[in-house]
Amino acid sequence: MTLTLAQVGAEAARCTKCGLANGRTQVVFGMGSPDADLMFVGEGPGAEEDKQGLPFVGRSGKLLDRLMAEEIGMTRDQCYIANVVKCRPPDNRDPKPEEVAACRPWLESQIRLIAPRVIVSLGNFSSKLLLDTTTGITKLRGQSYPLPDADAVLIPTFHPAAVLRGGGLQEAQMRSDLVRARLAMAP
Ligand code: URA
């Protein structure tokens, strides 16, 4: 029997497959349309996300919302937003390989069930994982990559937290990546 996205989310909410389960307030599975053409994938929940149970609701998320509206003309309800790991790593450290490995099936289920046409990976972490590469985001971004297994294209861009730190040039580059995503969705 194939589960729906909501059913998979309900299962993930009880997940104890890695140590991150011990420190979380709640699982941050993802949010948005289960039929979205466009999916964003970040790294993992921060403090605000852990508190609210929703992805990208802090400062980075506000920037993501604004750039998404200005360059793609979409709101977060029209796309889907998820992270590589669904539970907050303590002190905002990077997720460990065993945590990523334990969590990966949730992201794979999300991609399979939503079947987006375009996936925008936000930052080094999700870009390297989804492209199975060690190349960094500065080199990866600026192009799109077919993901034959998912029947989608992947467009890597900076993490909005990096844009908040980095300023104008990175913001302009992220905007151009989002335009690429909009064009990739055009029929
Ligand atoms: N950073 C992420 O990678 N994901 C979030 O949900 C919030 C901040």
Explain the overall architecture.
The structure is a single chain. By secondary structure, the protein is of the alpha/beta class. The chain has a single domain (5-185), classed as Uracil-DNA Glycosylase, subunit E (3-Layer(aba) Sandwich), CATH 3.40.470.10. Helices cover 47% and strands 13% of the residues. A hairpin with a 4-residue loop joins strand 5 (145-147) and strand 6 (152-157). Bound molecules: uracil (URA). Uracil binds at residues 42-46, 49, 55-56, 58, 60, 83.
Question: What is the fold named in CATH at topology level?
Answer: Uracil-DNA Glycosylase, subunit E
Number of strands: 6
SSE succession: HHEEHHEHEHHEEHH
Strand content: 5-15%
Structural class: alpha/beta
Low-confidence stretches: none
Indicate the radius of gyration in whole angstroms: 15 Å
Supply the CATH class. Answer: Alpha Beta
Mean of all residue-level pLDDT scores: 96
The separation of the N and C termini measures: 32 Å
Summarize the structure in short.
This protein is of the alpha/beta class. It has a single domain (about 5-185), classed as Uracil-DNA Glycosylase, subunit E (3-Layer(aba) Sandwich), CATH 3.40.470.10.
Which labels suit this protein?
187 residues, Uracil-DNA Glycosylase, subunit E, 9 helices, 13% strand, binds uracil
Element layout with pairings:
Blueprint lengths: L4 H8 L7 H4 L7 E2 L5 E5 L4 H6 L6 H14 L7 E4 L13 H18 L3 E5 L1 H8 L5 H4 L4 E3 L4 E6 L2 H7 L1 H18 L2
Parallel strand pairs: 2-3, 2-4, 4-6
Antiparallel strand pairs: 1-3, 5-6
Helix pairs in contact: 1-5, 4-9, 8-9
The protein binds uracil (URA).
